[in-house]
Amino acid sequence: MISTTLLFATLLLPQGPGPSVELFRGRRLEAPAGRELGYWNYQDATLEPSLPTRNFGGAVELLGGEGRTILIRFADLAAWLGKDSEVVSAKLVLTLADGGKADLISAARVLVPWGEGPLNTIRALTNSVRPVAPTWSATWQHRRAGSSPIAWQQAGAGGIQDSTPIPDVRAQTEGDLVTLSGLGPVVQQWRDRPYENFGVALRFAANVSFVSGKAPNAARLRPRLLVETKAAPPRKGADLAVESIRREPLTGVKPGQEVSYIATVRNLGNAPSEGIKAVWTTRERTGVPFEASKSLAPGEATEIPLKKRAEFDPQDPRTSPLALKVLAEDADPSNNSLSITEGGRFVWLDAPDASGLQAAQAVAAYVNDAIFPQSRFSFALEGVLQRVQIAGAGPKAPEGVATFRLAEGPVGILGALGLKYGFGGEVVSGGANPPKVPAALFGGFRNGEGDTRFEGSIPGLLTLNYEPYVNPLLTGLPIEPTGLLSGTDVASLNQDLEGKEEPGEGLLNVPNTTILKALSLTGEPLKNAELSFFQMADRKIDVSQPTFTVVTGSGGTAILPNRDLPANPAPLRSGKAPKPNPFGLIALDGSNGTFLVRAQVNGAVEWGSLSIWQLVDAYHRGSQAAAIFEMRFNVPTAPLDTETNLARGRIVTDSENRLPASAAALVDEDLATTFSLGAASGNWIEVDLGRDRPVGEVRLLLEGSEAPAKFDIVGYATGQTAGQMNAWVQEIDSGWTIRYRAGQEAGAVSLAYRGIASRMRYIRILNVSGGPLKIRELRVTPAKSG
After folding, report:
1. Mean pLDDT of all residues in 170-198
2. CA–CA distance from 351 to each of 227, 345, 390 (Å)?
3. pLDDT tens-place string over residues 196-250
4. For the chain, what is the radius of gyration of the CA atoms?
5. Does 249 sit behind a cis peptide bond, omega within 30 degrees of 0 on the bond before it?
6. Angle CA(729)–CA(731)–CA(737) in degrees, nearest 5?
7. Which member of 234, 278, 562, 673 has the lowest number of beta carbons within 10 Å of its beta carbon?
8. Full-prediction pTM beyond 0.90?
9. 99-136, pLDDT tens digit by residue?
10. Whole-angstrom Cα distance, residue 634 to residue 169?
11. What is the DSSP letter of 570?
12. pLDDT per residue over 45-101, tens digit each?
């Protein structure tokens, strides 16, 4: 997990990673400082004339032809291309989804904002259109749909105020790729003036479909922007920057109330300005102009006021943008405009002076434009509806306004909005080899916990896997993690849009009943398993005495007890009351929100974990009354004869036909000798047990902690072949297993794999993903008969 301190501690104004940049939604490699989470500031949608009031922004394909318009927007370009860069060339690459012909009619620069709209849920996937366009989404008729829609000047973004043709664009098709070249000047303009970047509108003659930016698990097939840049000389002269916009009063404002907005404009350049011309824009409509002849010396600032009645929807702050734009051709036009939302939350930069405001505004913009809208879930199809704005900077914040430090980056801003909980802890008692608390496999950047997968294609009551094991019900489904905000984070922010709750109050939303289903590693129910729960307290877990214990029934299930709460818990700011649940009185900072769970069955002891965020996510996915959680334990399905090693001295063969004498190191019970599995995908090692034996465990003793990310353990009987058998156990993330489930033996990493106890003669280790694997010893333990 990326250190959030490292993430943004060095963030000033972001610099690009190099002269050649490739951008696509979800790209994570080689990101510039401040953008380590990847590239997320992207939108696309199809405008469909045959269904003029419906939004198609959540579709996995973009459709051209039949009069349709395709909208595509790549934003946040200054961070990726570099602040002082000049665009040499730019190309847009689309991937054909249907093999059709892409006959480009026109490419135009969009002149006004529009909304992508929500992702699709499983219901929408079976019913390809939504009956009503969601608020703030784009349709053929409107660039912003909803109760107070904003129409295109001409339907389909076809008016002269909607878009303007881009000269010299050429389309070339090669295989499944369609490349639109000649976009360099447009991309330069977007980089220089991000507030004027609303993307491109594409129209094609024949019916054609392209892979969209929402195509799951296919990042490199999504629309890609390829940009070549070169260094540009530093610009000189005046540089009027809109440094901040604050409101008076800052807090407690209701819709319709008379307020004042005060913008601070500062000259960040090295020469005096020539007066100031600016214009206020309300809800994306040009409004009140401002003009003053006053010249600002370098470093000098002035204030531009606006009095109006506040207009915003408290339940959807996105829909009330307010902006000031300075009309000047100066050294750096990228900072000539600043936009806030009237219904958003103000925070304050804790700093000695205002010198860090420009960097802080860049962080806030990244939160508002990328992190918030792209952290999406079935219960939050457009991510976080909240928006945040920085009112100013200084050592003392106005009363009632939360503060953050620049070095904290987005994490600090999110903390100021109330996300101050975390679930990490350590085991403080447990003998010589205490269990480990695993980090969330698909966790978010804020604290490494929670789940960031968009699970809209999964039925709400279906259990998600939170550890790396094979789940046939989920195989192949589009549940790609983003690494942005977790579902628990998003639900908490959307629940408290007005800031009336105490930080962490969202953790109280848990199901009325919690049911645990204990399974083996390969999915068999563990009946009569004793499950002991050890609860974290102040982020430490003592495993010497369980908080409570349950025993599973014949189907491996057990209902967890709802523990009583204190008679008079401290009142909450919102007036809500906590309810009984397995965690008892939930600490709002998450410090008691994790259980280590010990399973004792078939003579073995193994560990798992359950966190409060899993209950919160299940609640918001629809399991308010009851939620069922699968927990897999690496225990045998029958008692083991641990005194016997069926592989000792047996014949070993491999896919590379190495001499049996060298392969014997695998089964000689000498940890000083090693044998390597071939590093290529498809390589294998196989041990012949001599006859069919009841196998319960295969243990690998590794030299070092490196292994192929994925490998299978295949077992088959006399008269069968490996190709006739399914894998006995599948390892799909060896790094996670080695970190959290491995033991140690005489300096070797010990990995035990336990499938269904079965009779087999041959045990094969098959390299699936590729990668080296040095094995000191392979042991096979039989299951006891009877």
Report:
1. 96
2. 36, 19, 12
3. 999 999 999 999 999 999 998 787 899 999 999 999 888 899 999 999 999 999 9
4. 30
5. yes
6. 120
7. 234
8. yes
9. 778 999 999 999 999 999 999 886 555 455 556 799 99
10. 58
11. P
12. 999 999 999 999 999 999 999 999 999 999 999 999 987 889 999 999 999 998 778
Q: Give the chain's largest Cα–Cα span.
A: 96
DSSP for 84-102, please give it.
Answer: TEEEEEEEEEEEBSS----
DSSP states of 653-712 as a string? Answer: EETT---HHHHGGGGSS-TT--EEE-SSTT-EEEEEEEEEEEEEEEEEEESSS---S-EE
DSSP 371: I
Q: How many CB atoms lie within 10 A of CB 411?
A: 21
Q: Terminus-to-terminus CA distance in the chain, angstroms?
A: 46
Reduce the secondary structure of 219-272 to three states and give it as a string: HHHCCEEEEEEEECCCCCCCCEEEEEEEEECCCCCCCCCEEEEEEEEEECCCCC
**Tokens at 219, concatenated:** 């990042």
Report the sign of the C-alpha dihedral through residues 648, 653, 655, 661, in that order: positive
Q: Which of 721, 690, 510 is nearest to 616 (CA)?
A: 510
State the pLDDT confidence band at 674, using cuts at 50, 70 and 90: very high
CA-closest candidate to residue 404, choices 447, 374, 359: 359
Q: If you count them, how many residues does the chain have? A: 786
- Assigned token pair, 1: 């997990």
Q: Helix 487-495 vs helix 612-620: angle between axes, to the nearest 10 degrees?
A: 60
> Distance between CA atoms of 231 and 19, rounded to whole angstroms?
8
599: which 2 tokens?
A: 């399973």
- The CB-side HSE value for 763 (13 A sphere, CA atoms) comes to 33
Amino acid at 781: T
CB 538 within 8 A of CB 552: no
Beta bridge partners of 611: 594
In this structure, of 240-249, 311-320, 550-559, 565-574, the range with the lowest mean pLDDT score is 565-574
Rounded Cα distance between 448 and 145, Å, is 36
Residue type at 552? T
726 pLDDT band (50/70/90 cuts)? Answer: confident
Helix axes 357-366, 409-416, angle to 10 degrees: 80
pLDDT at 462 over 90: no
State the Cα–Cα distance between residues 768 and 290, nearest whole angstrom: 65
Decide: 484 and 447 in contact? Cβ < 8 Å. Answer: no
Nearest to 755 by CA among 430, 519, 437, 440: 519
| Span 257-284, average pLDDT | 95
Asked if 52 and 133 touch (Cβ cutoff 8 Å), the reply is: no
At position 247, the amino acid (one-letter code) is: R
Instruction: Tell me the pLDDT band of 4, cut-offs 50, 70 and 90.
Output: very low
Residue 226 CA to its chain's centroid (Å): 24
Q: What is the Cα–Cα distance from 730 to 741, expressed in whole angstroms?
A: 15
Six token digits for residue 242: 């809109």
- For residues 542 and 534, the answer to whether their CB atoms sit within 8 Å is yes
576 pLDDT higher than 90: no
Say yes or no to pLDDT of 474 above 90: no
Q: Whole-angstrom Cα distance, residue 191 to residue 78?
A: 5
Quick: pLDDT tens for 337-377.
999 999 999 999 999 999 999 999 999 999 999 999 999 99
CA–chain centroid gap for 192, Å, is 28
Mean pLDDT of all residues in the chain? 92
Angstrom distances, CA of residue 143 to CA of 47, 112, 194, 198, 342: 10, 8, 19, 11, 20
C-alpha span between 319 and 386 (Å, rounded): 10
Contact 762, 722 (CB under 8 A): yes
DSSP 506-528: GGG---SEEEEEEEETTS-B-TT
Which residues is 687 bridged to in the sheet?
652, 763
Instruction: Identify the CA nearest to 601 among candidates 526, 516, 549.
Output: 526
In whole angstroms, give the CA distance from residue 63 to residue 202.
Answer: 10
Which amino acid is residue 555, in one-letter code? Answer: G
Bridge-based pairing state of the strands 142-144 and 403-404: unpaired
